[in-house]
Amino acid sequence: MTTAQISLKRPGLLTGHPMAKYVLTRVRQSVITLFLVSVVVFAGIRALPGDPALALAGEERSPKALAAIRAEYGLDDNIVIQYARFIGHALQGDLGTSSRTGLPVADAIGQALPVTLELAALSLLLAIVLGIGAGVVAAVRRGRPAEWIANALALLGLSIPTFWLGIVLVLAFAIAVPVFAASGFVPFGTDPLDNLRRMILPAIVLGSGLAAVVMRQTRAAMLDSLSADYVRTARAKGLSRREVIGGHALRNSLVTVVTVLGLQLGHLISGAVVTEQIFVLPGFGKLTIDAVFTRDYATLQGVVLCTSFAYIFINLLVDVAYSVIDPRIRLGGAR
Amino acid sequence: MTTLALTGIRARAARSGKLRALRKNKLAMTGGVIAVVFVLAALFAPLVAPYDPAQPNFDNVLAAPGWSHWLGTDDLGRDQLSRVVYGARASMQVGVLAVVLAFVVGVPLGLLAGYYGKFTDSVVSRVTDTMLAFPFLVLAVGLAAVLGPSLTNATIAIGISQIPAVIRITRAETLRLKHVDYVAAAVANGGGDGTVLFRHILPNATSALTVQATVGIPAAIIGEALLSFLGLGVQPPEPSLGVMLSSAQSFLAPAPWMAVFPGLAVVAATLAFNLLGDGLRDVLDPRGATR
User: Fold this and answer.
1) Distance (Å, rounded) from C-alpha A182 to C-alpha B200?
2) CA dihedral of B147, B150, B152, B158, whole degrees rounded to 10
3) Minimal CA separation from B157 to chain A, in Å
4) Please, are residues B199 and B185 in contact by the beta-carbon 8 Å criterion?
5) pLDDT value, residue A9
6) What does the DSSP 8-state code read for residue A97?
7) What is the DSSP letter of A14?
8) ipTM value of the model?
9) What is the pLDDT of residue A122?
10) Residues in contact with A171: Cβ distance below 8 Å, sequence separation at least 6, in sequence order
11) Quick check: A167 and B266 CB within 8 A?
């Protein structure tokens, strides 16, 4: 707190500025976490009972193949050297070779990533539009049926497991009334309409839980804002209801909503794994599950490493973005 | 002596007041009743289930819900109601055991980190961050890959994934309680670290931890269903709501009831604990959400 007070007196200086200090602290923490994650992922394969070469080999277990793997991964070297080599290769984009396909793991990830990113983007869009909309309605229409309905939908959205919602939606909109396709993927570039027809159900499945969380947070934040002094002032100076709600109350509530979206990222990743499994989408999640069942440890290692790195990085971005929006965070966090 | 007795009475009065407040909350009570039904069904599954959940009957496959089979039969002619009851048993088992595991590991670590601070806190916090860096399913999938898929390993994976949240909440509570007068008094009285932590700090953190448990149980129930659905948890022919949903996927058009009822059971269980948890949070934790 003292640092913050002192540096507030000279905000022009970058060194010792609470903002810079906060960002540096967060970056330092993230680097340590990244390092620990990479150690855990590396050790994971070595923790398997028996010869790691056996695990990396998958189905192909002839002595010749095992010897080749041992040479390729340098499994007879010191464990620290092995780790250094693993990280060195990973940093250059070399995540090893899949024991199932014989192709580079990095290529498989490169192919799966666009599918998952599209799914995540559509779900986020859905969650933001539905969640913020319902949250604002619930807050503005406090105590009326609209609030009650929005609350009930949010509670349902939180309690219905993703995979069951997926099955029910397939039953309703792909089997009973076949409007959408239940499985398969067509790249957006090939046929945008068919792509969307296949992506809408998965996006609803993945976005619904997120929409429920966003709705609850928007509602709570809006209720706070609506009773705040600046909203009363805005009303008193004669602004229309729409201007007060949209321009003042909602704008101030969005800070909370942005943070919540960041915090929900992990759920989005886990949800994507299941959603892709139900709708047979060739994304990141399907790659992960397939790797588990085919004991394709090189792929599993690469996928877990990539997911965790992305997760840590985005969390860092969210924290930094949040501290830019809300100075109270960095003043409290920089201690 | 009198003061102590009075404090005791007042504490009891406050507790019964909280109970009364909870009893007035209709949604929470509904959730509580459904939760109790689930617990009882799980405990007395052999008495509740009308049929043997594993007994196939090939003369009566994919039968629609009716008088002899209230929830219909599956692709092997097994009674769906009996399988849902036994599936709920697996769900409750994982729900409770995973949360117990998370508490047994997380609470002591949170207490240590919050009470001693400095180096201990840094180490525990970095470990927590590392665990949080793995999204739940990625962690569970990795563990299932290493340990092999089974109900026990699914429980361990779900329990481990809940440890960071328990550590964070215990740590935050310890940080708050460390500076409260009665803890300072206990320290001044010559109370050792163990006495202070387990007799003065931990009992006062129970509200926050109770709320966390009601969040953790439904999360673990969904987690079990999810892992079993993906083939990483309970292995067929053992009944589990997730396994039932997974096999229902192949019979969506001819036998939609195979997918509807196990799913409804999962929703009812999670909804019940969520409602109960919301009610408890209102009563026990007036500062609002701890997470």
Assistant:
1) 56
2) 80
3) 14
4) no
5) 43
6) B
7) S
8) 0.74
9) 92
10) B252, B256, B259, B260
11) no
Of residues B53, B48, B22, B28, the one with CA closest to residue B37: B48
The CA-atom distances, in angstroms, between B152 and each of B91, B93, B147, B211, B234 are: 12, 10, 10, 25, 8
Amino acid identity, residue B70? W
- The residue of chain B with its CA nearest to that of A39 is B130
Report how far Cα A179 is from the mean position of its chain's Cα atoms: 29
Amino acid at B209: L
A-B contacts (CB, under 8 Å)? 124
One-letter amino acid for residue B145 of the chain: A
Cβ under 8 Å to B: A residues 304-323: 304, 307-308, 311-312
Q: How far is CA A307 from CA A272, B128, B138, in A?
A: 12, 17, 8
List the domains of chain B with CATH numbers: 25-46+77-284 (1.10.3720.10)
Task: Considering only the beta carbons, identify the residue of A163, A293, A311 that sits closest to B135.
Answer: A311
Classify A104 as helix, strand or coil.
strand
Q: Each residue of B167-220: pLDDT tens digit?
A: 988 988 888 888 888 888 888 888 778 888 888 888 888 888 888 888 889 889
Q: Are A20 and A14 in contact (CB under 8 A)?
A: yes
Answer whether residue A332 shows pLDDT above 70. Answer: no
B188 touches chain A (CB under 8 A): no
Secondary structure of A246-281 as H, E, C letters? HHHHHHHHHHHHHHHHHHCHHHHHHHHHHHHHHCCC
Burial of residue A52 (number of CB atoms within 10 Å: 0-12, 13-18, 19+): middle
Closest CA to B273 of B210, B200, B181: B210
Q: What angle do CA A294, B75, B83 make, to 5 degrees?
A: 90
Point out which residues pair with B79 in neighbouring strands: B73
| pLDDT(B289) > 50 | no
Of the candidates B136, B242, B263, the beta carbon closest to that of A266 is on: B136
Segment A25-81, tens digit of pLDDT: 888 888 888 888 888 888 876 766 556 676 666 666 677 777 777 777 677 777 788
CB contacts under 8 A, B 136-155 vs A, are 136-138, 141-142, 144-146
Q: Which of residues 151 through 180 in chain A touch B, CB cutoff 8 A?
A: 155-156, 158-164, 167-168, 170-171, 175
Residue A14 neighbours by CB under 8 Å, 6+ apart? A20
3-state secondary structure labels for all residues of chain B = CHHHHHHHHHHHHHHHHHHHHHHHCHHHHHHHHHHHHHHHHHHCHHHHCCCCCCCCCCCCCCCCCCCCCCCCECCCCCEHHHHHHHHHHHHHHHHHHHHHHHHHHHHHHHHHHHHHCHHHHHHHHHHHHHHHCCCHHHHHHHHHHHHCCCHHHHHHHHHHHHHHHHHHHHHHHHHHHHCCHHHHHHHHCCCCHHHHHHHHHHHHHHHHHHHHHHHHHHHHHHHHHHHHHCCCCCCCCCCCHHHHHHHHHHHCCCCCHHHHHHHHHHHHHHHHHHHHHHHHHHHHCCCCCCC
How close is the nearest chain A Cα to the Cα of B177, in Å? Answer: 19
Q: Is A173 within 8 Å of A255 (Cβ atoms)?
A: no
Min Cα separation B1/chain A (Å): 43
Q: What are the C-alpha distances in Å from B284 to residues A23, A275, B102, B279? A: 36, 36, 21, 9
Cβ separation B245–A288 shorter than 8 A = no
CA atoms of A178 and B45, how far apart (whole Å): 39
